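Session log. Operator J.P. requested a structure for one protein chain; no other inputs attached. Running the standard single-chain path with token output.
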Amino acid sequence: MQGGTAATQDVFIEHVGIPTLAALPQAVQALQEEGLHRKVQLIVSGGIRNGADLAKCMALGADAVAIGTAALIALGDNSPHLDEEYRALGSAAGFYDEWQAGRDPAGITTQDEELAARLDPVLAGRRLANFIRVMTMEAQVIARACGKAHLHSLEPEDLVALTIEAAAMARVPLAGTSWIPGRGL
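Structure written below.
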């Protein structure tokens, strides 16, 4: 999970702001210090692509997540069958260069009536609903694998990180250890 919007340059996505994984524990800590955690809703957005990302956010203290780019892709944006049209715009399927310019060949993020007419809202709605169902089921399976009856029961103790960087950002132990970087041994 990273910060930034897919409509921006890679330099911003990779090097500006705070990644979601690092920002979430800080936000939870700030709310706890003010006595507001779970009294106000903490809704996380940025780089959430699947049920595992959802489960991680919930375990780290989020009340809910919002999805953006993943929802656009589920609707049919950035589809490989439109690659030729993306290339005509100087892009390619797999890149999001033209979404913000209103020239989306899939007809999703545009005000151009001709392009917008390409979108089948019923099919797009079914795709999005399916994506959300699968994402929710993935997160629920992860919660159950952690011995939890409900997704909202996940907590940081249910997580470990695979890299030192992720362990430091999420404030969870490095896998196979009890060590959290920055907190000593």
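Operator note: Residues 91 and 152 are 40 Å apart (CA to CA).
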